[in-house]
Design a protein that fits this description.
With 400 residues, the chain is an alpha+beta fold. It has four helices and 22 strands.
């Protein structure tokens, strides 16, 4: 009887000890990292590498059949519209030209006339857009004194004004190029329909149509060239845009007028831009992993004047962040706090030193922050990067 009682007592003690151990284990504290739910601005962007390119690249071609004298210009040399001689041709005698070449010269002059008309129409359109942007800018600045507009509205108006001013410069450049084409084609036609009367008339001079720099020389050495043979390429380095190819699934989110942040271009300063156009057609590109992707080109105008980005040349690599969504105020948390369970999104909220799983309604997000539409309040404390040990109801303590 005594042995039975002793044995029962031992079992009870063991059970009590096991219960105490289980209770202690259930109250085991897990150290976690936490963050506060905040209210503030949030931007969502498509981030891709891009490259710069000169907006208006002009290829000077031979307007007629003849012998090209050696071109002494090198890439990087400065040229001035109407004054810098870029090439010299010794044309073939008009007596040796056939009717087909004369017809080609007449067609080139007609095309040049149409190009002038189109450039004039484009310039008028751009001037009207610039006038509208200037009026809007003045209106916004006037409202600024009354504190009735946000800083974002002011920035948008300033950016649109600068972009339209740069667009007018490009339109004027296109007009000068069209006039140059007409002069060249007209001179070539006169050569086809008249005989040289002096030794100087045997040399056909080609001057630069615009102020800019030589980008490439295609035909440097002396030799016979045919009509349309490319001789050299020139452009104005101050008129630079950025070309970015993005996934087609990202392109549908981007619209003309979206703001762009430009960095990693070689200097610490950050540049800014605005999306001018999203091209309507995609193309197939093979990624570095060998996966075929549908990509779309996005063209971006740089807001800063050329004097602030002189070192940025043609074909340079840059990093762009195209902001397609922005809000000044929203409830947000670090993306490291998000937990996905099937189709649901949730977080572990810290309440009374215990982890509590809370289902949330998720809005927009970027690589660092996520918008919370429902489920959390500003000031709540959530666990960031929770380990597998964290469960609903687990005791937790925050790290220093």
């Amino acid at each position: 009887m005594k042995l039975f009682t002793l044995r029962n007592g031992t079992i009870c003690v063991v059970l009590i000890v096991l219960g105490i151990l289980a209770w202690n284990l259930s109250r085991q504290t897990i150290r976690v990292q936490t963050a506060k739910v905040q209210n503030g601005p949030l931007s969502v962007a498509v981030e891709e590498d891009g490259k710069t390119r000169i907006k208006e690249r002009y290829t000077i071609s031979s307007p007629l059949l003849g012998t090209l004298l050696r071109i002494d210009l090198d890439p990087g040399d400065r040229v001035y519209g109407g004054t810098t001689q870029v090439a010299l041709l010794q044309p073939t005698s008009p007596d040796l030209l056939d009717e087909r070449q004369k017809a080609q010269a007449e067609a080139s002059r007609k095309a040049a006339e149409l190009a002038i008309q189109r450039s004039q129409a484009d310039r008028r359109k751009t001037e009207e857009a610039l006038t509208l942007a200037e009026k809007n800018r003045e209106r916004v600045l006037a409202l600024k004194a009354k504190s009735s507009v946000s800083q974002q509205e002011i920035d948008i108006a300033e950016t649109e004004f600068r972009v339209q001013r740069a667009a007018l410069a490009v339109a004027e450049l296109a007009g000068r190029i069209a006039e140059f084409e007409f002069e060249q084609s007209n001179a070539a036609l006169l050569h086809h329909t008249s005989e040289p009367t002096s030794a100087s008339a045997l040399t056909f001079t080609i001057n630069s149509p615009i102020d800019g720099e030589v980008l490439r020389v295609f035909q440097e050495s002396r030799g016979v060239v045919h009509p349309g043979t490319p001789l050299l390429e020139i452009g104005d380095p101050s008129l630079i845009e950025i070309e970015v190819d993005v996934l087609s699934t990202d392109a549908v989110k981007i619209s003309a007028g979206n703001e762009v942040v430009i960095d990693q271009w070689g200097k610490e300063e950050t540049l800014h831009g605005i999306v001018r156009r999203v091209e309507p057609a995609a193309y197939t590109k093979v990624s570095s992993l060998g996966v075929e992707e549908q990509r779309v080109n996005v063209l971006i105008d740089i807001v800063e004047p050329a004097s602030e980005r002189r070192a940025l040349g043609d074909g340079f690599q840059v990093n762009t962040k195209i902001i397609y969504w922005h809000t000044e105020q929203c409830v947000q948390i670090p993306v490291g706090a998000l937990i996905r369970q099937g189709e649901r999104w949730g977080v572990f909220r810290v309440q009374n030193r215990r982890a509590e799983f809370v289902e949330i309604k998720l809005g927009e997000r970027n690589r660092e922050r996520a918008e919370i539409l429902a489920g959390l309040d500003v000031g709540d404390e959530v666990i960031v990067y929770p380990s597998d040990d964290v469960r609903d109801g687990s005791y937790v303590s925050t790290t220093d």
